[in-house]
Each structure stands twice: as structure tokens, then as C-alpha cells.
Design brief:
The protein has twelve helices and 13 strands. The protein has one domain: TIM Barrel. By secondary structure, the chain is an alpha/beta fold. Helix 5 links the parallel strand 6 and strand 7. Helix 3 packs across helix 4 and helix 9 packs parallel to helix 10. Helix content is 40%, strand content 14%.
Length: 334
């Protein structure tokens, strides 16, 4: 396999099932997506999952990034016996108390170790959204804390734990999803807090992670910045992420299929790219939708191409530390 081709498309695709179809193999070879994302529907057994990861990379002819959402708690695509079951992050943080930083490092080091063993090298974590009492239940206990300081500290521990196991983190959901009162899979949330409040709280956590190589956007509206377009589709918000939060990593959308975004799937993809997003994320594996996205994608800009190469280079440079996984399990009692 080559290190990576120079004609990558600015998209990450999901796949339909646990094995690649002939159509998927041909489609991926032709479109050359930046990477792939896996879900529970793609997982049957350890051997099957390793074979799927290998087949995906064979289809495109290079060591493409393979992503997953393995947060622990409600959102983990791999479950026992293939992976360790954890408490939801907010519950874990509360139970760990003063030891939460050490425990979050251990938690995500274990998660990364398990993922890497199957061939998955990018995890869509840490979740850097600040929880509130009114945060929608789809997100609330996936958060790490109720204050900027707590989320930043535990987020950094999770980030470092993944790196220690040789897995690339993706910070999410930029620039902060914790004020959402609706499930963005089903509709859009409108945030009415002032710009000053946001920069001192939700946005500030992400500013603490400006060194991250990969990030994921939020599909929510911020009235103080752009009352018309969700962050994913807002040039004003992408400019704030780049300039004021100083994030120069590879920025991807959350799933294009989520109904918080207006319009058709291909128009969402076009709007995200034109707003300044680097990579669009299409998760459900629907062949017709994937084809429609591929047909409208613009070529990556020189800056996006540079960020792609930087992310791949950082992924390739990761060397797993010598971790005592059994000791980490014992530390957490899992």
C-alpha cells in the first residue's frame, strides 16, 4: 500500500454492513475518501472487524484512517466481549471524584488499546461539551463535567490516554454543544447566550485544545454569531474556530444525515465545504446518498490538503506506549 494518494476526496464515509460489497469496493477505489467511520452495524466478531478494516484499506490502496465513536457509556460501538463496558463519562467523573483525571487517562488508554487491536486508529473523542441541567439527554451524560475547568482537565486526560495507546483523538463538538436542548439528530437547537459568555465557557474549552489535529463541528445555532446557519454551515463560526480558538487542525462535520441541518444531503455537503469545513462526514452507508455526496464535492483547497497531510502524518507518527492494560483495568475496577 502507498502512504497516501494525493487525490483524496474531502469526505469520510460509513459502510453499510459487516462486509464490503462489490459496489462499495469499486466506489471507494474510485472516490478515494479521506477515511471511513464504523458503527455497531459493522461489527460481528473480532476477526470479522479486523478483516473489514483491512478490506477498507485494500479498497483504497493505502492506510486510510478508520474512525469510530467509542466514548464509553451509551455511545460505544464495540461492547463486551469485544471491548470494556464503561459508565457514561459524566457518571464516571462523579464517581471518581478527585481521582477523575487519572481514571480518565486510564479509561481512554484502555479504549484506544482495544480499538488499535482491531485496526481502528481514530476515535471521535474526547467530548469537550460542558453539561448543563438543561442539556438534552442525548448528550448530557456523555459530557465530562459542568464547568470549563473540569471538562478541559478530563478532556486532556482522555486525549492523552488515546495518544498513549496509539490512537488519534477527534475533539468534539466544536465550538461547544452543551447548551443544546434538542437532539441534533432530529432538529436544531438555538443558543441565545451572549458572545462574551460563550467565549469564557463553551468556546474556551476548545481554545484549550487548539493543538488538536482533528476536530468535529456542532450542528447548533448560536444567535450571537450567526442566527441563520448552524455552526457546521456557518462561515462566521468557522472563522471564529480558526481565528479566535486558534484551531488549525482538520475540521470535519458531524454526520450530514442529522436533521439539525437544512436541505438535502448533497446541499448540506456543499454548504459545509463552502463555509470552510475541511471534511464532510456521511455515516449511514446508503449507496445513493454516498454517490450524491461524491458528485458534489469540491476538490480540497490547498489548506485542507495541508491539514489532511498533517493529520495523517500525526496518526502515522503515533507509537503506543508500553501500557500495563491489566493494571489499568484493575485501577478502574473494570
Amino acid at each position: 500500500m502507498t502512504s497516501h494518494p494525493h487525490n483524496l476526496s474531502a469526505v469520510i464515509f460509513g459502510v453499510e454492513g459487516p462486509r464490503l460489497s462489490f459496489w462499495e469496493k469499486a466506489f471507494f477505489a474510485d472516490t478515494q475518501p479521506f477515511g471511513f467511520i464504523l458503527f455497531a452495524r459493522n461489527v460481528e466478531t473480532a476477526d470479522q472487524l479486523r478483516a473489514l478494516c483491512s478490506d477498507l484499506r485494500t479498497a483504497v490502496g493505502w492506510n486510510a484512517p478508520i474512525l469510530i465513536d467509542q466514548e464509553g457509556g451509551r455511545v460505544q460501538r464495540l461492547v463486551p466481549p469485544m471491548a470494556t463496558q464503561f459508565l457514561p463519562p459524566l457518571d464516571h467523573a462523579a464517581s471518581a471524584g478527585a481521582g477523575a483525571v487519572d481514571e480518565f487517562f486510564a479509561r481512554y488508554a484502555i479504549i484506544g488499546h482495544e480499538l488499535r487491536g482491531y485496526g481502528i486508529d481514530v476515535n471521535c473523542a474526547p467530548n469537550l461539551d460542558i453539561a448543563r441541567d438543561h442539556t438534552h439527554p442525548f448528550l448530557q451524560n456523555r459530557c465530562y463535567g459542568h464547568t470549563r475547568d473540569d471538562v478541559s482537565a478530563l478532556g486532556r486526560a482522555a486525549y492523552d490516554g488515546l495518544l498513549a495507546s496509539g490512537v488519534m483523538p477527534v475533539i468534539k463538538h466544536m465550538p461547544g454543544h452543551g447548551m443544546a436542548v434538542a437532539d441534533s439528530h432530529k432538529g436544531v437547537s438555538r443558543v441565545t447566550e451572549s458572545y462574551d459568555y460563550l467565549t469564557e465557557n463553551d468556546f474556551a474549552v476548545f481554545a484549550d485544545f487548539s493543538d488538536a489535529k482533528m476536530g468535529m463541528s456542532a450542528h447548533i445555532l448560536f444567535d450571537a454569531i450567526d442566527p441563520l446557519w448552524p455552526a457546521t454551515l456557518s462561515p462566521r463560526m468557522i472563522d471564529i474556530i480558526r481565528r479566535e480558538l486558534a484551531f488549525d487542525g482538520l475540521l470535519m462535520t458531524d454526520d450530514l444525515s442529522m436533521e439539525a441541518l437544512p436541505g438535502t444531503i448533497p446541499t448540506r455537503a456543499m454548504a459545509a465545504q463552502r463555509a470552510g469545513i475541511d471534511i464532510v462526514l456521511h455515516c449511514n452507508g446508503d449507496a445513493g446518498e454516498m454517490q450524491s455526496v461524491a458528485e458534489v464535492l469540491e476538490q480540497p483547497t490547498p489548506k485542507t490538503h495541508q491539514r489532511m497531510q498533517a493529520a495523517i502524518g500525526a496518526r502515522d507518527a503515533l507509537v503506543p506506549q508500553s501500557l500495563d492494560i491489566d493494571a489499568l483495568h484493575a485501577q478502574l475496577g473494570v
